[in-house]
Amino acid sequence: MRLIKEISQMKTWRENARKNGIRIALVPTMGYFHEGHLALMKKAKTLADKVVVSIFVNPIQFGPREDFSSYPRDLERDAAMAQEIGVDVIFTPEARDMYPEGYQTYVEVTELSKPLCGARRPGHFKGVATVCLKLFNIVRPHVAIFGLKDYQQFLVIKRLVKDLNLDVEIVGHPIVREKDGLAMSSRNVYLSEEERKSAVCLYKALCLAKEKVKAGQRNPEALQKELEEFVLSHPYTKIDYIEFRDPETLEEVKEISKPTLLALAVFVGKARLIDNMIIEP
After folding, report:
1. Residue 236, by phi and psi: left (phi above 0), alpha (psi -120 to 50) or beta?
2. FRET pair for 79, CA 20 to 30 Å: which of 18, 89, 112, 258?
3. pLDDT average per 10 residues of sequence, the chain (281 residues)
4. Alpha helix locations (H) across the chain?
5. Rg for the chain (alpha carbons), in Å?
6. Beta 260-268 vs 237-245: how paired, if at all?
7. 36 and 163 together in one domain
8. Is 233 annotated as a binding residue?
9. pLDDT on residue 138
10. Nearest-10 crossing angle of helices 201-214, 220-232
C-alpha cells in the first residue's frame, strides 16, 4: 500500500493506472476509521481494480463553532486498518495544498443543500461539494463510494456529478450499525458511557416511525411530535431536527403516501449524531 501526500504524485499514480486500463475506485473520508469506512473499502474492491482512500479533514466544511480542531485523527491506525482490507493507496493531502494562499473557487449544489443539515450548518455542503470535486479531479476515479448515513451528502454529490457532467459513478453503501442499532460514526468517540446508552434512541426512533407508518399513520407532523417526545425522554439529548422529506428532492412531505426519507440530527452530550431511514407506507 502506498501513502501519497503530494497532489502531483497522486496525479502521476492515477495517470499511470489509467494508461494501463486500470479501473480506480475512490473512498473519500475524513479518517478515524470504523467498520462503516471499512465496509466502503470492501465494496470499492468489488467495483474496481485499485482502491484509493482519501483521508482529509476538510476545513471548509466546518463552521466556526464546530469540531474541526477536535475531530479525531490517527493516521497510523487508519493506515493499518486500510492495509488489512487491501487498499492500494491512501491519499492524505495537506490543507495548505488543497487550499493554497489566494484560493477563491467554490462549487455549490443550491437546492439540495438548503434543508436538513444544510439549514443548520451554513456553508457545509459548499465545502463538501468543493472538496469532492477537487478529489475527483485529482484522483480521477471511475467510481466513488459514499455511506448513506450522510444521505443528504450522497444526494448533493450525485447532483454535482450529474450537473457538471463528471465522468465518475457514485455508489451509495447502506448504513453500518453497531449491534444495538447505533449508526457507526467517528463522532461516537465523543460519547461518554451514559451518553452512549442514550444515543441508540436515534435508531429506535426510526424503528418506531417505521412501525407507526406500517400501522397506518400517514401524518408526518403528528409522527414528528411523537418522535420528538420519544427522543427527549432519553437523557443528554437535544434535537437539532426530525424531518420527513422526499428521498430524491428533499422537499417537505405533507403525507406519507410513498417511500419517504425520515432524517434526524440529535445532540447527545456534545456529539451531534445523524441517522436516517426510508420509511415505506
Report:
1. left
2. 18
3. 98 98 98 98 98 98 96 98 98 98 98 98 98 98 98 98 98 98 97 98 98 98 98 98 98 98 98 98 94
4. 7-19, 35-47, 75-85, 95-98, 117-120, 124-139, 151-163, 193-199, 201-214, 220-232
5. 19
6. antiparallel
7. yes
8. no
9. 98
10. 150
186 marked among binding-site residues: yes
User: Which cell goes with 3?
Assistant: 501513502
Spatial contact of 128 and 61, defined as CB atoms under 8 Å apart: yes
- As beta bridge partners, residue 241 has 265
Q: Which residue has the cell 467498520?
A: 35
The position carrying cell 469532492 is 132
185 annotated to bind ligand: yes
As a whole number of angstroms, the distance between CA 127 and CA 107 comes to 8
Domain count, the chain: 2
Residue 245, classed as helix, strand or coil, is strand
234 is in an annotated binding site: no
Q: Please tell me whether residues 99 and 25 are part of one structural domain.
A: yes
173 is catalytic: no
Closest CA to 30 of 64, 65, 60: 60
Q: Which is catalytic among the residues 37, 124, 173, 234? A: 37
Both 107 and 212 in a single domain? no
Contact 53, 43 (CB under 8 A): no
Q: Is 37 annotated as a binding residue?
A: yes
Provide the residue range defining the domain that includes 49.
2-173
Give the other-Cβ count within 10 Å of 222's Cβ: 11
